[in-house]
């Protein structure tokens, strides 16, 4: 399912870039994250960077992002690992400030099984409100049905939400942004509850065309 969403996102990207009047925005981000496997007491923190691409046309918006970081567990008995997260979202504006959102994502870790790799789809909402012609704030939330784990297991409840703010030029050419995202997945494996939580903060600049 996640692969299908990425293919659909790529096709939409091709279609949008061939039509005049679309808005394109490139993002460059720095990130800090906290990862927790709650029941196992496995906590880790990391920092890194990434970027993204947004394309808007009419009521539709495609938002693709990729971030990576080096993550260090708080236990000296566990080795550090590399984290990469890829996300694709497609929005449809119902009103100027409220949109429905679908998409998918994948979290990779290397070496494998240093933490849980997770693939997920998302169904949610997005709302952005202008405080001023130079500044805006936004909120998004999503349900993540049927996530898949590198170590097996299932999750009946999985969700995410994020808050963000941006300030930039009136023409939208440049924007500085900051965003905080929280994800909770109530994973069950081998008859035990092994929930996963992740907090991710990102800040950076976006350049519009």
Give an account of the 3D structure:
The chain has 209 residues and is mainly beta. It has a single domain, classed as OPCA outer membrane adhesin/invasin (Lipocalin). The protein contains one helix and twelve strands, in the order αββββββββββββ. A ten-stranded antiparallel β-barrel has the order 1-2-3-4-5-6-7-9-10-12. A hairpin with a 7-residue loop joins strand 3 (60-73) and strand 4. The two termini are 32 Å apart. Residues 1-8 and 10-20 have low confidence and may be disordered.
Quick tags:
69% strand, 10-stranded antiparallel barrel, Lipocalin, mainly beta, 209 residues, 8% helix
CATH structural fold name: Lipocalin
Distinct helical segment count: 1
DSSP strand tally = 12
Please state the average pLDDT score: 89
Q: What's the arrangement of strands in the largest beta sheet?
A: 1-2-3-4-5-6-7-9-10-12
What share of the residues does DSSP label as strand, in percent?
over 45%
- Poorly predicted runs of 5 or more residues: 1-8, 10-20
By CATH reckoning, the class would read Mainly Beta
Helix content: under 10%
CATH superfamily heading: OPCA outer membrane adhesin/invasin
What Rg do the Cα atoms give?
Answer: 18 Å
Largest sheet: 10 strands, antiparallel, barrel
The structural domain count equals 1
The shape is globular
Given the helix and strand composition, which structural class is it?
mainly beta
CATH architecture assignment = Beta Barrel
Separation of the first and last Cα atoms: 32 Å
Order of helices and strands: HEEEEEEEEEEEE
């Amino acid at each position: 399912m996640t692969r299908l969403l990425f293919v659909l996102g790529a096709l939409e990207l091709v279609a949008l870039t061939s039509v005049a009047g679309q808005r394109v925005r490139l993002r460059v981000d720095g990130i800090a994250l906290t990862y927790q496997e709650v029941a196992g007491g496995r906590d880790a923190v990391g920092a890194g960077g990434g970027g993204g691409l947004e394309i808007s046309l009419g009521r539709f918006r495609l938002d693709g992002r990729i971030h990576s970081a080096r993550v260090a567990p708080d236990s000296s008995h566990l080795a550090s690992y590399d984290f990469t997260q890829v996300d694709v979202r497609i929005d449809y504006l119902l009103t100027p400030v409220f949109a429905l959102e679908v998409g998918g994502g994948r979290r990779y870790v290397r070496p494998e099984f240093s933490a849980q790799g997770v693939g997920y789809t998302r169904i949610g909402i997005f709302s952005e409100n202008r405080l001023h012609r130079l500044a805006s704030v936004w909120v998004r939330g999503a349900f993540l049905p049927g996530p898949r784990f590198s170590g097996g297991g299932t999750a009946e409840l999985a969700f995410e939400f994020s808050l963000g703010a941006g300030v930039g030029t009136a023409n939208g050419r440049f924007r500085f942004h900051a965003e905080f995202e929280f994800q909770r997945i109530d994973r069950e494996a081998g008859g035990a509850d092994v929930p996963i939580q992740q907090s991710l903060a990102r800040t950076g600049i976006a350049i519009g065309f």
